[in-house]
Specification:
alpha/beta; 10 helices; about 40% helix; globular; PFL_dom; organic radical
Length: about 300
């Protein structure tokens, strides 16, 4: 999106990285113009992505072919090629801000948009608001369709994930200010998570937003790392277990109009316990947290 706004110039490196085009010059960003340009840059990005993966897999086969493993494999090998999305909620929120609020680019002396001023409110992903949730759904489907058009090494079936593990932190460090108000260097939301602190309408609304994402276009996984404090689930353990099970049943529910969630990392803990675990790790030898599909010892 930032490349689309700046004509392919990286906002941090001040270098031409993407295809050279005329940067957007208006005082206020127009949604249709940004979306049209972003679509073209997604074509370019998909091609760069698949080309890089083709080279990687070819060179891996050439120099590090897993002969012993393949000898034990079924004769007919079905190959897939895993692609992925990072920063989905940033992109959806940015498009939402451009469409429903007024976003003014702030340009440097070279005319490069390096910051954005937002006037007004805009719907944010994670609150079960179709205005922005539909944008997130569209981005997942749109990018996968672009990848599917491209040739893959050994005719592998391309797949896509909305799963970052911890790379959302690294990608955020390399990305400048975005039209949703996120500051340069700040982490993206992990996986399919809403941006930090923006899911204001509770757990059900947040889970519902993520459950709308189309697994048919992201068969490599859609990961939501879901954290909630114990008291929000009830007053005692039995009530908490029942309520958490109900939330999960709703998230994974499938019907004609919604595929339902596919992957949920659940953390039930409070801030005080985590702070105490940092100060007194010997009291919590088994404390484990979920991070994007992995279970990690808190004090490891």
């Amino acid at each position: 999106m930032l490349y689309a706004i700046n004509g392919g110039v990286d906002e941090k490196l001040k270098m031409q990285v993407g295809p050279k085009s005329e940067p957007i010059k208006g005082d206020v960003l127009n949604f249709d113009e940004v979306m049209d340009r972003m679509d073209h840059f997604m074509d370019w990005l998909a091609k760069q992505y698949v080309t890089a993966l083709n080279v990687i897999h070819y060179m891996h086969d050439k120099y590090s072919y897993e002969a012993s493993l393949m000898a034990l494999h079924d004769r007919d090998v079905i190959r897939t090629m895993a692609c992925g999305i990072a920063g989905l909620s940033v992109a959806a929120d940015s498009l939402s801000a451009i469409k429903y609020a007024k976003v003014k680019p702030i340009r440097d002396e070279d005319g490069l948009a390096i910051d954005f001023e937002i006037e007004g409110e805009y719907p944010q992903f994670g609150n079960n608001d179709p205005r922005v949730d539909d944008m997130a759904v569209d981005l997942v489907e749109r990018f996968m369709k672009k990848i599917q058009k491209l040739h893959t090494y050994r005719n592998a079936i391309p797949t896509q994930s909305v799963l970052t593990i911890t790379s959302n932190v690294v990608y955020g460090k390399k990305t400048g200010n975005t039209p949703d108000g996120r500051r340069a260097g700040a982490p993206f939301g992990p996986g399919a998570n809403p941006m930090h602190g923006r899911d204001q309408k509770g757990a059900v609304a947040s889970l519902t937003s993520v459950a709308k994402l189309p697994f048919a276009y992201a068969k490599d996984g859609i990961s939501y790392t879901f954290s909630i404090v114990p008291n929000a689930l009830g007053k005692d353990d039995e009530v908490r277990k029942t309520n958490l099970a109900g939330l999960m049943d709703g998230y994974f529910h499938h019907e004609a109009s919604i595929e339902g969630g596919q992957h949920l990392n659940v953390n039930v803990m409070n801030r005080e316990m985590l702070l105490d675990a940092m100060e007194n790790p010997e009291k919590y030898p088994q404390l484990t947290i979920r991070v994007s599909g992995y279970a990690v010892r808190f004090n490891s």
